[in-house]
């Protein structure tokens, strides 16, 4: 368990550091993203969609407020186009994270976990728990990127990874985009309630999973 947590913690620190740098620098703030999307909407709806896709793909490398961005996508593009744009962006980010980690992650893995037996245990543990981690990764920022990288690093089959990723991503993106599409500056309640509801749902699922995992442990 410790080797797996060690790697996930290092990945978390990496992604969290990008969020900290952006927060301090003021780059990619929510207000700035709103300004970009507003400016793009004055020119072309396709430009808004490409901006949303690009920012969500960029989330693999630097922490972007994913849920807020999807809500804004729904607001500017409507539920369907906003949802599809969000799905494409998150699909690209997840696939790229998996592919990069699949090809190069073993080098990091070998350096951080030098004991072959511990490496094998860590891989086996993620192969067992990884599907749940991917399915519930939207509970918190950064975890989706970590789960995609861990899936590639531990050589989870792409078919399984992409299936879990899509199951998690599709309803999340479509629900958030719809909430954004029916929200206005005067009435932001649908977006606020949806953000709270989605986060609460995923955290509740984590709680249930952890309770069952504890009960399943041998005494």
Structure description:
The protein has 219 residues and is mainly alpha-helical. Helices cover 83% and strands 0% of the residues. The chain is built from nine helices and no strands. It has helices at residues 2-25, 30-43, 45-58, 66-77, 79-112, 116-135, 143-153, 158-181, 189-216. Helix 4 packs antiparallel against helix 5 (79-112) and helix 5 crosses helix 7. The longest helix is centred in the middle third of the chain and has 34 residues, at 79-112. The chain is globular and about 55 Å long. It starts with a helix and ends with a helix.
| Total number of strands | 0
Averaged pLDDT:
84
What distance separates the N and C termini?
A: 17 Å
- The arrangement of helices and strands along the chain is HHHHHHHHH
Number of helices: 9
**CA-based gyration radius:** 18 Å
Largest sheet: none
Overall 3D shape: globular
The helical percent reads over 70%
Approximately what portion of the residues adopt beta-strand conformation?
A: under 5%
Secondary-structure class: mainly alpha
Low-confidence runs (pLDDT<50, min 5 residues)? none
